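Sequence in, structure out. First:
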Amino acid sequence: MEETIEVARAAQVPQQRGEQLPDTAVRYAKERHWDVFPGAWLEAEGGVERCSCGEPSCARPGAHPVREDWTNQATGSATVARRLWSKQPNASVLLPTGRTFDAVDVPETAGFLALARMERMDLALGPVTLTPGRRMQFFVLPGAATKAPDLVRKLGWPPASLDLRVLGEGDWVAAPPTRVGGRGAVQWVRKPTTANRWLPDTEELISPLAYACGRERRP
């Protein structure tokens, strides 16, 4: 019962800012020193929102890179970010991983269970997002993608058995308030603040995350 209450408390998503995408992209670059780059966007067609890429079966409508060289396009300059979004104000805000942070990606239910345990343990957390696809992404120090498999093994889990993956170099995350198709927008579960500017190492969070994902896989 106590765990259920803690999970419910952890799952209270804070109210999101009503910022426009260009302003948000600039703020991420200026205040957090995160690299940002513009992605696809949603276009209304016959009352239906479709991805600007034109692919009817797009897996991430309105929230994926549009250029093959997106890794070179990503910028940490607020001035450059403002110029990029001035060309397409509706472009999604994407953040490359493997630079200033990696992201541990888990199912929503496992994420909130892990979050409740982390807060009970007084672990230092970085920003955490919730996607419309019901995934949670915990921001951690770069290098997590290479360390996570061994850390999970040491906890007694075969890495392939858990629905837990780490987004590192060569990958990216969609940042709030990017919208994904008609499913809604990416949200902050734990917003970026001055208190969480220093990110935790994967080793600090992997145990509660693996435990929660292990609970998820049990029949």
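Second:
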Amino acid sequence: MRYRPISPAVLAEELTERVDALTARRRIAVAVDGAAGATETTELADALVDPLRLRGRAALRVSARDFLRPASLRYEHGRTNPDARYTDWLDLGALRREVLDPLADDGSGEVLPSLWDAERDRATRAERVPVPEGGVVLLDGELLLGAGLAFDLAVHLWLSPAALRRRVPEAWAVPAYERYEEEVDPSALADVVVRVDDPRHPALYTP
């Protein structure tokens, strides 16, 4: 794969242009996908909010970590089980129902920005937020691709195998991300792939 070095600021600018060019649907869903704790999914998604708003596009931030299953389900096979992390932690049904389905052209446009507080292990009781026509939902998280979630633009923050092992703070979770690479190949599914072995010096994949 060929990569073009790019600064974080220019990356945010180019992604903003890509998102702003999406006009086929009334509301837009963008995913920023990468290994938790080792890729800057939150920072990149946050960096798109103000530039989109300056272009007249309402932008709502949502994090997949606020749509995890309750602890009793996540930790049914232990707190450090990589297979459970891969298959059981994220509540895909809730993400579809509460975030993505409302963005459809025949959807309500009312998005739930968070569902479950994983630290307190209880519902957040968040209020629904209306996303107007032309609005964008920016969703960041891990293991988002290949699960049937409907995104208009998917950005994958890729790590080389060595960087993945070096940078993921929870070593027990590394096999989950390795399985994701092997079974899903998120780089092949994403619209934009960014190499982030060194987060200060990202590189954009150029086909």
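Remark: The mean pLDDT is 97.
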